[in-house]
Structure formats: structure tokens, C-alpha cells
Design a protein that fits this description.
CATH superfamily of the largest domain: Uncharacterised protein YqeY/AIM41, N-terminal domain
Oligomer: single chain
Strand content: under 5%
Protein name: GatB YqeY domain-containing protein
CATH class of the largest domain: Mainly Alpha
CATH architecture of the largest domain: Orthogonal Bundle
Distance between the termini: 45 Å
Number of strands: 0
Order of helices and strands: HHHHHHH
Helix content: over 70%
Number of helices: 7
CATH topology of the largest domain: Hypothetical Protein Yqey, Chain: A, domain1
InterPro entries: Asn/Gln_tRNA_amidoTrase-B-like (IPR003789), GatB_Yqey_C_2 (IPR023168), YqeY/Aim41 (IPR019004), YqeY/Aim41_N (IPR042184)
GO molecular function, one term: carbon-nitrogen ligase activity, with glutamine as amido-N-donor
């Protein structure tokens, strides 16, 4: 049986503490607190999709920070953020390949009957729920634009 995300995080928290791995410890604590906050806001236990959404948000925030650190020439912080991103990705489902996303986009285009770039939003609305947490929105957006043009 698959371990619940919370149990996995608790195990990893203990492991990180024993290993004196500060980065992993901070990331796992931050994920646990983000999930707890989301659970409190929702007023119920989070579904797997809701957990993935919270983790995706955490990943996105770290990727944005990485961009800022790189622009600002702070390689030390960029390296640490890269490690954090790797840790967060461990808890997310395997990302879809461009080919898999492309197939979902093709399916959405045919089901919505979109024929031009003007219907970009319509196609995105059909695709995003299917790839939530499994594909980067920028990749999806690029593929939809390519296929509509």
C-alpha cells in the first residue's frame, strides 16, 4: 500500500534530522506546514489532487526564487534552491514527457474544435486539469501555441 504523503514527510523529516541535512529538513518542514495550512483552509483532509496542487505551488515558488537568485548573481542561493527543487520534486508525480502532453493537447484541440490561436484559452482550459501537477504550465502553453499555429 502506498504511504500517505504526510507519513512519508514525517519519515523523511526524521531521516533529515538524523543526517543533519539542513536543506532537506527545511524543505520537508516547509512542505508539511504548507499542507497543514491548506488543510486548515479547506476545512477537511486534502485529496491527492489538492496535495499535488500545494506541492506544485511550492515547486513554482522555488523555481521563481531560483530565477531571481541567478539574475542577482547569487550562485550560493541558486545552488541551495536547486537542491530544494530536487527535494520537492520527489513528492510530486512523475512529470509527463512533451510527447504525452502533446497527445493531451491534440485531444483537447479536437474535442474543443479549436482551429486558430484565438481559441488558445479554450484549449488551455481543457488541457490544464488533465496535466495538473504533472506538467509545467509554460510547456503546455508552448505546445498549445505550436499546435494552433
Amino acid at each position: 500500500m502506498k504511504m500517505a504523503l504526510n507519513e512519508t514527510l514525517m519519515e523523511d523529516l526524521k531521516t533529515a534530522m538524523k543526517a543533519h541535512d539542513k536543506i532537506a529538513l527545511n524543505v520537508v518542514r516547509s512542505l508539511k506546514s504548507a499542507l497543514t495550512n491548506a488543510k486548515i483552509q479547506a476545512g477537511h483532509d486534502l485529496s491527492e489532487d489538492e496535495e499535488v496542487a500545494v506541492l506544485s505551488t511550492q515547486l513554482k515558488q522555488r523555481k521563481e526564487s531560483l530565477e531571481e537568485f541567478t539574475k542577482g548573481g547569487r550562485q550560493d542561493l541558486a545552488d541551495e534552491t536547486n537542491q530544494e527543487i530536487t527535494i520537492v520534486q520527489r513528492y510530486l508525480p512523475q512529470p509527463l514527457s512533451d510527447e504525452e502532453v502533446g497527445a493531451i493537447v491534440d485531444e483537447a484541440i479536437s474535442s474543443t474544435g479549436a482551429t486558430s490561436a484565438k481559441q488558445f484559452g479554450l484549449v488551455m482550459k481543457a488541457v490544464m486539469p488533465k496535466v495538473k501537477g504533472k506538467a509545467d504550465g509554460a510547456v503546455v502553453s508552448r505546445l498549445v501555441k505550436e499546435k494552433l499555429n
